[in-house]
Amino acid sequence: MNDPDKKVALVTGASRGLGRAIAIKLATCDIKVAINYLANDEEAKKVAQKIGTSGGMAMLYRADVSDANAVRQMTRQIAKEWGKIDILVNNAGIVRDAFLLHMPEGTWDEVMNTNLRGAYLCTKYALRSMMEQGWGRIINVASLAGLVGNAGQANYSAAKGGLIAFTKAMAREVGPRNITVNAIAPGFIGTEMTGKLPQEAKDAILPRISLGRFGAASDVAELAAFLASQAAGYITAQVICIDGGLI
Asked: pTM of the predicted model, to two decimals?
């Protein structure tokens, strides 16, 4: 289990959607994957089982990424079990949509705490291992909403915009230690989250996508795997849109 030659990745929010696809893809790259999730034990176990049956290695870590103590304990446990953390994918995120005049303060705070504070905490506590070994990859899953904004998503857009700024600041801080920090900004990807969109909204969006289709979670996972690889060693502080040519 403690093979020092294998990279170790922590993927947050990995029981479903983009996190699930990224965790599974990283495992195919001979990377040991720590699967973080908040509540859905059954779905998280399915991800770990899929990785295991394919010959990969995975462990489950149930933790609220907005809780500093929980994140501290999780990263310590990963380091204890596998010796280090090489790759961090800050994917955990939620939506709580409402127009601002009708948005409760708790709804704003909930989204900011998970989507932005969670990335801050996970980066803070995973970073020590990367700094000590002089190598690391941090990949933040942002959104086009963080670049252009979405009506009814002021909280989500603000959190993702903050995550993009956080990406650029962290890239400056840790670049001298051979640690890259990049953000992925997905457009409309076929996940549980976008599946909740009304059909009329989907019909309005599709003609604006140059490739004529919604993206798949695997499209984002392929990009994450590349950014986590040795081949992406000279790419940092970037926000890479993966949106099929949305106009």
From this structure: 0.95
